[in-house]
Amino acid sequence: MKKYQKEFTEFLIDERALQFGRFELKSGRISPYFFNTSAFNSGNTVEKLGYFYAEAILRHLPQCTSVFGPAYKGIPLCLSSAIALTHLSKKDIGYFFDRKEKKAHGDQGLLVGKIPLKTEVIALVDDVITDGQTKIEAIEKLKNWFGLRVSAVFVAFDRLEKNDEGIQASQAFSEKTGIPVHAIITIYDVLSLLKEESFKDIEQVPESSVEEIESYLKVYSN
Fold first, then answer.
1. Residues forming beta bridges with residue 204, ordered by sequence position
2. pLDDT value at position 70?
3. Which of 35, 156, 195, 201 counts the most CB atoms within 10 A of its CB?
4. Structural domain span for residue 57
5. pTM score > 0.85 for this model?
6. Annotated catalytic residue: which of 103, 176, 195, 200?
7. Cα→Cα distances 89→51, 75, 121, 153, 178, Å
8. Which of 3, 26, 100, 105 is the catalytic position?
9. Beta partners for residue 217, in sequence order
10. How many domains does one find in the chain?
11. CATH number, domain at 50?
12. Residue 105 a catalytic site member
């Protein structure tokens, strides 16, 4: 595990973006943990988040020249990631995002930001991946309307759970689109860190969390 992934897990716990307990998910499953992206709601936390995305992009897509964020959650992510990636890579990285509704005045464009050339390498950033449909629609829009190709998708956290067909969401997405999905951290990464001595005394993490997560993953993960 990379240093930035351990630091990211500590960041998630400190900001209560990753919580432990008993949570009912939209799917109806009762989960011993919950990832809450609304915790990143200040300039400081969004700036830090951007650097973690940038570290992941440099690791998996170092040739990246532009960062795209699908509206609406992807908008602050693409901006903060592009700024951080510019600092870390010493290259001027572009950012852009789409509009949900077509603008009826001004430039009337469907994309906002530095629109990349067709030859550029684009990273799509978003918070999590569930069924991936929003990302698929955005990717198809970029390809069909603007001739742009997304090279990789980056999310903050991957639960790595099976859907009703027994396939993980990120795997199903990659099989459908041919685009790899990279998470800054996965639940298995978190589980591994929770077993380390340095994480055992963290107040926000109940002692039973490791056992409960392991039991949950035996049922809902591959």
1. none
2. 93
3. 156
4. 3-220
5. yes
6. 103
7. 11, 21, 14, 19, 26
8. 105
9. none
10. 1
11. 3.40.50.2020
12. yes
